[in-house]
Design a protein that fits this description.
Layout: E1 10-14, H1 21-34, E2 42-46, H2 49-66, H3 68-75, E3 82-85, H4 86-96, H5 98-101, E4 108-109, H6 112-129, H7 138-142, H8 149-161, H9 165-171, H10 179-201, E5 204-205, H11 207-219, H12 224-234, E6 237-240, H13 248-257, H14 259-263, H15 267-270, E7 276-281, H16 296-309, E8 313-317, E9 320-321, H17 326-339, E10 377-378, E11 385-392, H18 397-415, E12 420-423, E13 426-429, E14 435-439, H19 445-454, E15 459-462, H20 471-484, H21 489-497, H22 505-512, H23 519-525, H24 530-542, H25 548-558, H26 568-586, H27 591-601, E16 619-623, H28 624-627, E17 632-637, E18 651-656, E19 659-664, H29 668-671, H30 675-696, E20 699-709, H31 717-725, E21 729-730, E22 733-734, E23 742-745, H32 746-754, E24 774-777, E25 787-790, H33 796-800, H34 803-820, H35 829-838, H36 844-863, H37 866-871, E26 877-887, E27 890-902, E28 905-912, H38 921-927, H39 929-943, E29 946-953, E30 958-961
Parallel strand pairs: 1-7, 1-8, 2-3, 2-6, 4-5, 6-7, 9-10, 11-20, 11-23, 14-16, 14-17, 15-16, 17-20, 25-27, 28-29
Antiparallel strand pairs: 12-13, 15-24, 18-19, 21-22, 26-27, 27-28, 29-30
Amino acid sequence: MDNYLDTGKSVIISSPAGSGKTEKLARRYISLLLDGSEIEKILCITFTEKAAAEMKERIFNILERENPELFSKIKEKIPLMRISTIHAFCLKLLKRFSIELGVDPSLDVMDEFEASLLWSEAVYECVMEEKDKPALFFDMMKDRGIKGWDKVFSILNTLYGKRPVSELLLKREYSVENWEEKRILELYSKCLEQYKNKKLERHLLDFDDLEIMAYEALASHPEWQNILYSFDEHTDHILVDEFQDTNSIQWQIIDKLTEEWRSGLGSKRSKGKTPTIFLVGDDKQSIYLFRGANAGVFEEAKNRLSEWLGNEYHFEEAKENFRSLPAIINFANALFEKLMPPLLPYTQHNPPSPPFSKGGMGGFSGETWRTRYAHFEATRKGEGRVELALAEAGDNTKKSRIKEASVLAKRIKSLAGIYEIFDGDKKRPCAFGDMAVLLRKRTHLTLFESALRKEHIPFIVVKGIGFYDEPEVALLRELLSFIIDPHDDYSLFCVLRSPLFGIDYETLLNLITENNRPLINKLQAEPEFSGIFRMLHSWIEKAKNTPLAIILEEALTETEGWKHYREKQRQANIKKFIKLIESYESAGFSGLEIREKLIKARDGDEPKANINTEGMNAVKIMTIHAAKGLQFPMVFLPSLDEADTPRSSSIVIDEEGSRISIAYEEDSAKRKKIAGFARRKEKELEEGKRLFYVAVTRARDFLCMLGALNKEKSPAGRLAYLTENFDVIKNGKINSRTDFFEILTEAEIEKLYSTVQPSAVGRQPSAKHSASEFIYTEPLPFTADVKWRDVTEDLDIRITHGEEWVILGRIFHRLFEELSKGILTPEGVNERTLSLLKNEFLSDEDIQKLSSIVLSDFQSLKVNGHLNNIILPRDNSFTELPFILQKGNTVFRGRIDRIIIENNIAVIYDYKTFPVKDEDMPLLSEKYRFQMDIYKEAAGKILSMKTKAYLLFTHRGLLAEV
């Protein structure tokens, strides 16, 4: 019997990639059943719902195949199985003891998207409440360069993203010496309390709440002993999957649950039962530092269980790899044993941290977060192949990625249908469906997509982001915005141009240019659009008493919009959007609040809706994080030359030993001398190595690494790991191979590609993984991608003058628009300015300072005539005119500040509100020439007349023709 199946011992298994981790966990579970353990007394904790489902399936499959009798017995007890995520376990614990804990048993859990929006609202409300206490919030905005809402919100968001540790920092009252850090934590504490109140009002919790509340229930609540006793009565064994992804507080929860077991006390021992804990994972695959995972927990748990349990504990390190062919394993061993040297053993100079104490967090000492590598062996027969493909670096990063993407696509094309892989014990030509491209980040995803399309290679993007940028989602968002605010001409313009109505561009432009009335009123006045107007008007009226989600569905039906979005991905995205609106309405949000949420969400990384793509013969593109737990016959790892750039933030929360510390520093140069920042950098670089390991070990038969090599510079990132540890370059020349992988140049791949004949690319392989999370991108005949570009002023010039001028730019543009439309009179500028500045969360001193600048500039504009001649209402004029202009493969969109028609010429004015010097004028005019040329061409097409364009520098009152 394998030692890990000894149910009389607690076990930790270090199970490297491809060593059968899930199988071992399932076998342990079955061994407990065979030894007489009751199914309801075995708790198995996983970290995803998918993993929990897979674990149940694995257990059932083994039992059905090997022990039908036991399988038939437990089938009836399936509902009693306690296999769940850590968060599901915590929620069940809180609900089970809701009376003792004083918790509302009806509470529910928000998803991350909803939680982030609620947090943003809480911060905003908290800040507004603090405006009469400048010593706390507004001083932060003035001191040491922290200016403006965005910076403060970024700091608070960083702390929020470090929950639960950042919240424990407040609860445990750890010492903070720096006065700035004290003020930050004080403000964060107030925002957190506001956030908590908003959640209570809605009977909601977030995922971090579950962990914090569960730990406090077990560790410090007056009823903690009763809760632990009850848990002990109902649980004999705990199994934890993917233990390397555990954070500190999750480990503490497990620690508290097993406290009596380890001490030798409790009722189980007296009854002759030996309760056990079984932890399985691979510290080399700990890649979730940004989510709070503590890589040091794995090593710490090994030392703790050995110390606590002695002979009743067994540690096992798996040495066999059942996934990859020898070439891949040999390469992994050769590289990572150099990148991840063994940890130093505990000595008097490197002692273990003290045990967990009742009052605080357990400690992690001796840099246990550093990864050690253990050599492992391939069990599969065959050879396999590892290669490094090198493209020549371009003049900049984007050009390098374009060249590399082309090399990748051509290498895939040269292999498809030719290179043979194993399908079971037999070989067959590979197909596109056998291949996966694993990206470290999605920054250049579109470049790789474009390269694959150009070569007519079908592909799917797994867990792709950009949900709100999809055309069908953008359309529904604009339709919703119009229904909520019928005077939103820009949204209506987009809806009318969309496939729902398909009004041609010229007709719509003629409508826009008629007069300054709202676009909906212009539609009403035109007989040819009476049907469209009635339809739009009916949706507006229905919105008074009908849910918006229902109106969206009806709109798609009435306009036959569904027929324009027949692709599965499009339809799934539409359904996801409508469901999202339903959830907002169910939560009681008004139309305006929903619109605001959608505006905020546009900048997020909301994933596209999931669809099932099983059986599709297409290359899979995904991030390395998304690939964790998966395997593919052929893996391609591009962008190896990208530098390992640690995340930059002015604030850091760090765990060291039994202490949680915070450090804040705006100056990036000074951060290098602060221990907390230096340690974070080291941890992130260490995780980068683990991420590389995860990527390499996804490959079964074939691994191709790619990068752009600049002969004038030393390689960076993962490419540097290869060049420093293998003979990639010798005597200034690229070698053809090393002891562990082949090396192909761009020219060599081009030669291989040129010999490819158009043919079938192998039969579609059977699915080896769950495809339920795949996102399908329709492979298109190659055309240059159509790109949308907003023609808006870059902030770089205003930012050089300080954050104040960014704020003033927003204020001036709002005032000019309201004046031009007749909403505001010159006499009301002072009052309106004060109102707008208050919404920028400024101190009274800053409001006074900026308002004086506004009034001074307005006085200058009045004196030199620009206020009357350009800004105030004029006949035959337009304000904030929206446009869409296609030039080649780029679609430009934007709004023109001001157009006044004089002598059959459309005169364009674009407001520049920052300070300028006379000597800067030629440079600025040239900088904005492209923007103004787009404005002139768009206005010319809209108005069918000649155009002229001017920049109005409002601070100086200067007018410059471009």
